[in-house]
Amino acid sequence: MSKKKYYVTTPIYYPSGNLHLGHTYCTVAADAIARYKRVQGYDVKFLTGTDEHGMKIEEVAKKKGLKPKEYLDGIIKTVKELWKTLDISYDYYIRTTDEKHKEIVQTIFQKLYDKGEIYKGTYEGHYCTPCEAFWTESQLEDGKCPDCGREVILAKEEAYFFKLSKYQDRLMKLYEENPEFLEPASRRNEMLNNFLKPGLEDLCVTRSTFDWGVKVPFDDKHVIYVWIDALSNYITALGYSTENDEEYNKFWPANVHLVGKEIVRFHAIIWPAILMALDLPLPKKIFGHGWILFENDKMSKSKGNVMYSEPIIKLYGIDALKYFLLREFPFGSDGSFAREKFLKRVNSDLANDLGNLVSRTVAMVQKYNDGIMPQPSVNGEYDDELKDLAVSTPNIVEKNMDEFNFSVALENVWKLISRTNKYIDETMPWVLAKDEAQKGRLDTVLYNLCETLRIISVLIRPIMEKTSLSIQRQLGIDNAEITNWESTKQWGRLDGGIKVNKEAPLFPRLDIEKELERLSIENQKFFELKNGVKQETKEAEEIEDYITIDDFDKIDLKIAEVIEIEKHPKADKLLVLQLSVGEEKRQVVSGISKYYTPEDLIGKKVILVANLKPIKLRGIESHGMILAASKGKKLTLATVLEDIKSGAKVN
Ligand code: MSP
Asked: Quick one: which atom of ligand 1 is closest to the CA of 231?
């Protein structure tokens, strides 16, 4: 019988700098899934790689005085080293600069063109260079990129378009009929409400203002939009549409694409639409995970708060890091890597609970039975409770791993660990050891402890391979039949008579105060090594986020009174405001219609950026911008505390 197959992917990373802790999150999760499926006996394909085209990469290489490929070859080496340090068990590493990938992307583009899914037109719109994303007017937030909040540039050029709008109904139907296609549910709602319901527009899929990309096969003035190039990796890596397409036939459709929340849009709307246009099967699931913050703040090099994985691993090992990332917060939500929380968890869950259980068990077998694991003989109180929990835990873990609930899966293993520690306290082997008549009972207690540890070692293996193997070595187990996944569901698979071997403590207890400092210093050193500057202690003028008073003086802020308002005829999100600014009249278009009706604002004083370059927003001239504060879904216009004449300067 052929083996069951499983195909899991991570996003392919932009190698525009060193990957930080946040970047490793998805890969750690994908690795856990790949290992879990392998230990369950699946034939697994685990794909990761790098997304190496686009303007951003071209710019980074140029800044370093290198050709893109030269820059890329160097940085890809460091990405691969990072995955080695994290012991990531990927089966294939794709680079979008691989010849094979580029050829298949061209074939895909040609197929779409031949099928009439791509047509030539003119692109006029907004492009966010850091995100490599095009945005329509209505998608911008305050004229800025809705994903990263940075400035967008106006682009107008001859371009090719993919008929994305055509797939709106099919995509809505897909979400409705297969809710498991996009998880967690919050991401599905976001896609429906923010993109599908407002209506999809055709997607510009070529660029002609730079050429670091895959050329359009029939028009080499154009390069293929980097997201089309990148998304295709999931099938080019399998040899789609080549002579060697066995892997494609074997592994496609993917079981899951794991992606960060801000790139769900590309994976859950554009990618399935392309596959539909190609008449190819869709991936079974897109899972949009949350973001890792650092000490509750978004990681940013310019803010000087980036945490890297390497220093954590150097000090506390891979397993401690992987355990924390997958245990501390649900995979679908944002979570913070806070140093203290991390160190406390290492002490409580790893050193105290698991580490102690292993070392106490092995030490007792050595002390009370000459290092030989006994056979059980006399059953007693507490045994059934322990056994029942031990054999029911694997099913709970399995269900949660299958649903990407890593934290709940681990929580349940730790419930079993706690129950086992309690079993030691309840049965008191050191008391039994004093009484020769209790030898049979002592044997059973020691056996039960070893047998539970065997089950635990298999359950944690997908996430904590090193720890798992150390436990198995200490118990003297090297038989695959009792360390596969199915064996965890059966009690009593371990045979007595094996010699146990004590190893160094799995997780030595940490002095939190000392370690907080050590971890900060190591991270600092790593940052300096990689970036050539210090973080946190950077001189004020080195921080990109600061502006000088001269910079600020360039902005002409004025009080303006709202005198007339109309809805924008072409864009629901926009209002067209007529303002009086002293003697002058101004027209400003603002994306606030979701928050204010015209009646709310007539006669109100607002703050106007008066010297902003005028632009046309969906055909209507906007001469300035009014200031507003926003957080999450809330937005409020900025105004002044007491009344003051319009035209007054704000500074
Ligand atoms: N190149 C695209 C992906 C193309 S896939 C066909 C890309 N690359 S990226 O390098 O910017 O991001 C890669 C992944 O890292 C994304 O899934 C993103 O969400 C993730 N993360 C980047 N910072 C992160 C955190 N701080 N926390 C968790 N994941 C985050 O997007």
From this structure: 6
Indicate if the pLDDT at residue 548 is higher than 80.
Answer: no
Best probe residue, ligand 1, of 23, 227, 292, 300 (max atoms within 8 Å of C-beta): 23
Angle between helices 439-460 and 465-474 (to 10 degrees): 160
Residue 222 C-alpha from the chain's centroid: 31
| Peptide bond preceding 330 in cis form (omega within 30 of 0) | no
Q: From the CA of 16, give the closest atom in ligand 1.
A: 10
Distance CA(75)–CA(91), nearest Å, equals: 20
- Site to substitute for ligand 1 among 13, 256, 264, 293, most atoms within 8 A of C-beta: 13
DSSP 437-476: GGHHHHHHHHHHHHHHHHHHHHHHTTT-HHHHHHHHHHTT
- What is the rounded CA–CA span in Å between residue 474 and residue 504? 10
List of domains in the chain: 338-489 (1.10.730.10), 547-650 (2.40.50.140)
CA distance 286 to 223: 27
pLDDT tens-place string over residues 349-395: 999 999 999 999 999 999 999 999 999 999 999 999 999 999 999 99
Q: What is the CA(311)–ligand 1 centre distance, in A?
A: 21
**For atom 11 of ligand 1, which residue has the closest CA?**
14
pLDDT of 538: 38
pLDDT one-digit tens code per residue, 33-87: 999 999 999 999 999 999 999 988 999 999 999 999 999 999 999 999 999 999 9
- Is a pLDDT exceeding 80 seen at residue 208? yes
- Residue 297, pLDDT above cutoff 90: no
DSSP annotation of 180 reads: G
> Which tokens go with 124?
């006029």
The residue whose CA has the least distance to atom 19 of ligand 1 is 260
Measure the CA–CA gap between 65 and 40, rounded to whole angstroms: 49
Q: What is the pLDDT of residue 147?
A: 80
